[in-house]
Amino acid sequence: MKIKEAIGKLSIVFILIFIGGSIYLFRASKVLDVVGVRIHDHDLQVLVAETITQKHKGLGKRDTLDPYDGMLFSYKKAGRYGIVMRDMRFPIDVVWLNDAVIIDMAAHVALEPGVKEWELTPYYPRGDADVFIEFPAGAIEKYGMALGDTFEPIYQE
């Protein structure tokens, strides 16, 4: 009787692990949302990294952002959220915002091929930010972005 009880309990544990793993994989593989933002007179479509897994992966292992203009990372509380060039295949510009205002930028952040995770160069804003957006390198200049500029959401119907 004890063997049957142990097998029954193990079966329940395995089922719970399977269900939990399935939920995690479903959330982690969620298709990225797209939102519109405006800087000056430029309307941009950016991917939104929402989950921890999406934020960790970022733009890594992508050859391009096409057809999108950037990837947005949003946080509930402002802080000094940094980036690394993990698995990146193209250089980027990073724009950090607080309350939609640009508080810092990093242009032409270089690739670090073959660098181990713990040796990647971290890039942080000079102040607290609640959002940062990664763009292909050259976007800061292309769109004329400067400290103090404001991004506006584009509401889509």
Describe the protein in words.
This protein has a seven-stranded mixed sheet with strand order 5-4-6-3-2-1-7. It is built from three helices and seven strands; from the N terminus they run αββαββββαβ. It is of the alpha+beta class and 157 residues long. About 6% of the residues have low confidence. The termini are far apart. A hairpin with a 2-residue loop joins strand 4 and strand 5.
Order of helices and strands: HEEHEEEEHE
On the 0-100 scale, what is the average pLDDT?
88
Neighbour order of strands in the largest sheet: 5-4-6-3-2-1-7
Low-confidence stretches: 21-29
Number of helices: 3
Distance between the termini: 62 Å
Structural class: alpha+beta
Count of DSSP E strands? 7
Largest sheet, if any? 7 strands, mixed
Radius of gyration: 20 Å
User: Roughly how much helix do the residues carry, as a percent range?
Assistant: 10-25%
Net shape: globular
Structure described in brief:
This protein is of the alpha+beta class and 157 residues long. It has helices at residues 2-28, 52-57, 139-142, and strands at residues 33-39, 42-49, 70-79, 92-98, 101-109, 129-136, 151-154.
Blueprint (SSEs and pairs):
Blueprint: H1 2-28, E1 33-39, E2 42-49, H2 52-57, E3 70-79, E4 92-98, E5 101-109, E6 129-136, H3 139-142, E7 151-154
Parallel strand pairs: 2-3
Antiparallel strand pairs: 1-2, 1-7, 3-6, 4-5, 4-6
